[in-house]
Automatic annotation (TrEMBL):
Domain Adaptor protein ClpS core, first and last residues per copy: 17-83
UniProt-recorded name of the protein: ATP-dependent Clp protease adaptor ClpS
Source superkingdom: Bacteria
GO biological process, one term: proteolysis
GO MF annotation, one: peptidase activity
Pfam families referenced in this protein's UniProt entry, alphabetically: ClpS
Span of the signal peptide: none
Alphabetized UniProt keyword annotations: Hydrolase, Protease
Length: 91
């Protein structure tokens, strides 16, 4: 077995262990664009441009992944989004 194959095996096993979760925001007929944009800036540390792009995707596609990462980091962020009255979940 070559060194290249051993390194590849180590990288593959490490990537399996570090599963990233996602916060997905869903479209609704209640929240305004401005409210969703402001919430994503505060809850997910988005730039105004990122938040606007995510909001447009939510509007036209019905949902958008707004943040990925470790579950312990995403839980409080998702809670802030939900407290703002926006439909979201961690998957």
């Amino acid at each position: 077995m070559s060194t290249k194959e051993k390194v590849l095996e180590q990288v593959e096993s490490a990537s399996k262990e570090m599963k990233n979760n996602e916060i997905v925001v869903y479209n609704d007929d209640i929240n305004t664009f401005d409210h969703v944009i402001e919430t994503l800036i505060k809850a997910c540390d988005h730039t105004p441009e990122q938040a606007e792009q995510c909001t447009i995707l939510v509007h036209y596609k019905g949902k958008c992944t707004v943040k990925t990462g470790a579950l312990k980091d995403l839980k409080p962020r998702c809670s802030r989004i939900l407290e703002a009255g926006i439909n979201a979940e961690i998957i």
